[in-house]
């Protein structure tokens, strides 16, 4: 496991970077003030961040009499980070500078039949070739890859996968061979990358007990405690979608009965809408969920009743993990949350007091992710940035995040 | 929040103490070998533990030519720790020496009508007077008190309580005034104290992700991550008893419907047994649960079917938190577990694969607590010992637990 001093370093680095990205150029005393770190700790970290090429000196500031203060900024001309989101029907790439601005973005369409590791490696190699052509003069500092399914992070193994019929594929090794890249590769599943994204670049920074609810085709809840992604014993933590809320509920795609995912994953929501009387058909579940959101807005009865039913199940499921984990903040994200969050959240807020213990409810904030960024990809890149920042040796005190 | 270096210190101290209690006298190099700490760290910690009166020098050992090695042992003649378990019908006291051996034990019976803080304070003061009389010549290092219900640890407040109709009572302050004790008082609820007991003196030491399932009148699951009790935002984590496994299930004493506690807390189990055809009556639910265990052993049909039904609900509930938290070890404790664990666990093991994801199941160990000790009280004393050990300044490397 990672050492506590490494955890503190990462928190301190991300805290400084966040403040520097939000407002730069900044001086060392400014950063100390904003992060709550000592000036000595900030100075040590800044020296190492400059050596690593993450931070650059960006002019001088009059200090009111004394020696002028050096100002600092993110090194936007330095190395780049690549985030990759591998899904069943696409592979998306984003390249970021160290201010986390997107330099280049590309997407490969994947056919559902392309279900072998080799076919996916073809798509990743093809996308990466385009990224490297566009950014030929930039050093790649790290590549973060989000895969669906179960991932063994230390071994770089794609253990299993709900969509493709493969097991225990040494994906990271295959990818490294295929790409011939000097930069390190970080593999994880999308629940973990999106949680890393929220933790470092979303609403999660400084939250001691964070829960990130991802609503999509599947559902899950990413956890981060004490400024650190909580993975569990086998990186399988957060499989909330396969917790039971009703032993007599519908059968889930995992084969079990009564999983919350069978009710509030996109297919489950659309089944409920059909049961409420909607008999239209759509090409994709994405367009169907958008249509449900539109119908709810105009007050169509089946849509309104569907949202009520989904919010009821969502409240049961959210209450179950809130009673267990007692988080400070629950953030809702994912494409279904983007489409239906506005409809679901007020109803969820109304229902939670029926299910959450008073002691946990008082401290609880819930909110929609309002970032316009793709948190799965940004989070994958954040894992690569974590790896890069782990080269820093300084420890120092602990940042107020 | 507690600093990470303090967390590491505590882990190191408890690791050393555990090894010292299991096998003493031991030399510093022995302890370094067993704990995985450097000899320098062990030496620094030992010096401070001797200053604190926790450890004593206990003779010399030939080191094969060089200077003889000093041997160390727990200071059984030093200060004492007191654990108190406050429940609806009793207050139990145990006084421990620093080898965690029970020096004195006493119990006060509490009438159900004695439901005011003042009446309880009377009982605690009465029990403590007896403890102090017997151990008049011993310094009390700390008093750990387990209360039912919701406890604000930092404020020492009994926030709310399922059994007594009180709210926001400054119990720690009242207790300190009443006892006039020099030693610090540590207040927490029984789920947290029992988890602290398992973490430091039970099966939990060295387990990175520990879950302690308490089965009694109520049920809960105490969590400890990374060698530290996980409390949640408001010390309300672990309220597993009030997670929903069936929205059409029976009404719980908390007023909600479908809580797992309503099915597998002692009253729920006895209701299920009655529904299976048992029409006997008992004076206490404890004797009823014992009778159920006896009937199950002799293969009585209603008892066997009740155990099956309870194991089915238990499997759903355990799977729900295992899928979410992905622990390394689940320990079952509490008086219902003591009586029925032997019946429930094989059935639970058989059913878990139907509900727990394969990735989490592979790493999971489940076991009954086989300690003969009262973990609620020992855990309360462990919180007092934590407080005492927190006076130590050394940090050093991290023990292999």
TrEMBL record, chains A, B:
Keyword Transferase on entry: yes
GO terms for MF: kinase activity
Keyword annotations from UniProtKB, A to Z: Kinase, Transferase
SUPFAM superfamilies (UniProt xref): Actin-like ATPase domain, Winged helix' DNA-binding domain
Gene3D superfamilies, alphabetized: 3.30.420.40, Winged helix-like DNA-binding domain superfamily/Winged helix DNA-binding domain
Top-level lineage group: Bacteria
UniProt-listed InterPro entries: ATPase_NBD, ROK, ROK_cs, WH-like_DNA-bd_sf, WH_DNA-bd_sf
Pfam families: HTH_24 (PF13412), ROK (PF00480)
Recorded family membership: Belongs to the ROK (NagC/XylR) family.
Protein name: Sugar kinase of the NBD/HSP70 family, may contain an N-terminal HTH domain
């Amino acid at each position: 496991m990672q050492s506590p001093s490494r955890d503190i370093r990462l928190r301190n680095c991300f805290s400084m970077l966040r403040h520097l990205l939000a407002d730069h150029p900044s001086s060392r005393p400014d950063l100390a003030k904003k992060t709550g770190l000592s000036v000595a700790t900030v100075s040590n970290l800044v020296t190492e961040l400059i050596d690593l090429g993450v931070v650059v000196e960006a002019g001088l500031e009059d200090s009111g009499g004394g020696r002028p203060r050096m100002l600092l900024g993110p090194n936007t001309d330095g190395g780049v980070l690549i985030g990759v989101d591998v899904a069943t029907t696409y592979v998306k790439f984003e390249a970021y500078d160290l201010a986390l601005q997107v330099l280049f973005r590309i997407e490969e369409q994947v056919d559902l039949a392309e279900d072998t590791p080799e076919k996916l490696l073809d798509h990743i190699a093809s996308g990466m070739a385009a990224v490297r052509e566009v950014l030929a003069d930039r050093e790649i500092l790290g590549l973060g890859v989000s895969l669906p399914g179960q991932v063994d992070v230390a071994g770089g193994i794609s253990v299993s996968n709900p969509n493709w019929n493969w097991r225990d594929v040494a994906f990271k090794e295959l990818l490294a061979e295929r790409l011939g890249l000097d930069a390190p590769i970080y593999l994880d599943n999308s629940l973990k990358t999106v949680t890393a994204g929220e933790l470092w670049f979303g609403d999660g920074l400084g939250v001691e007990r964070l829960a990130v609810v991802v609503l999509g085709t599947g559902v899950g809840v990413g956890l981060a405690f004490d400024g650190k992604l909580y993975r569990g014993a086998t990186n399988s933590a957060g499989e909330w979608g396969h917790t039971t809320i009703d032993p007599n509920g519908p059968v889930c795609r995992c084969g079990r009965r009564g999983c919350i995912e069978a009710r509030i994953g996109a297919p489950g929501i659309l089944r409920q809408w059909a049961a409420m009387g909607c008999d239209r058909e759509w090409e994709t579940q994405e367009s169907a969920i958008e249509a449900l959101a539109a119908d709810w807005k105009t007050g169509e009865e089946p849509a309104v009743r569907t949202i009520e039913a989904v919010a009821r199940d969502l409240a049961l499921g959210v209450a179950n993990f809130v009673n267990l984990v007692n988080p400070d903040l629950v953030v809702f994200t994912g494409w279904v949350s983007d489409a239906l969050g506005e409809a679901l959240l007020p109803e969820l807020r109304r229902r939670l007091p029926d299910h959450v213990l008073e002691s946990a409810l008082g401290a609880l904030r819930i909110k929609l992710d309002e970032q316009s960024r793709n948190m799965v990809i940004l989070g994958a890149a954040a894992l690569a940035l974590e790896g890069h920042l782990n080269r820093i040796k300084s420890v120092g005190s602990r940042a107020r995040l």
